Amino acid sequence: MTESAFIHRFEPATSAGSPPLLLLHGTGGDENDLVGLGKMISPGSALLSPRGRVLEHGMPRFFRRLTEGVFDEEDVRRRALELGDFVADARQQYGITAPVAVGFSNGANIAAALLLLKPDALAGAILLRAMVPLSDPPKAALDGKPILLLSGQADPIVSASNSARLAALLSEAGARVDHKVLPAGHQLSQADVTLSRDWIGDVEAKAAAADPRSSKKLENNPIHSSR
Ligand code: MLT
What we know:
single chain; alpha/beta; two-stranded antiparallel sheet; 5 helices; 33% helix; binds D-malate
């Protein structure tokens, strides 16, 4: 892997029909944070889970911010492209197809930026408590990519108008956006897990209908960790 390498964890797929997941943690998290969530929502998927390379008072993040909800957009762009390079390298190294991102909070925001800046890097995304990452995003061609956006009605960090704007931005770029507002705050709830699991199941079923060979079972492989 090149200099773009992030500290990360990789777990191989146990079912060829399940899409690989790119797990992107929130501020202060690491590569282990969302592995449990990934296994709950798609038990057979390969899991690729990098640690954000920016430190804010020692807490890992995926890009710099000036203050809560105000982003250093130059850094957002640079870091999103770096993450795209990492995904491309990891796809080669581990032999996986373009992953579906599963991002929470800061991880959801970098996933949204990656979708807008480098749409081919991802097959789709589950964005948990995401907000608009760039005030002047480029025109992206998301060409029917499936995106599940789950927002919290009482989220003190992401306003209802901001998440609605993100949903509109992604839809206008051609994505198939499913936006749901849950009776929750910024933290995740059981409803996030259930809705994400059902949504991934649907994505898998559609892929299997398009290519029936993809549902073949794989052997169980050991866990890899890499720095
Ligand atoms: C961000 O900085 O990406 C958002 O404010 C979410 C957070 O990390 O608190």
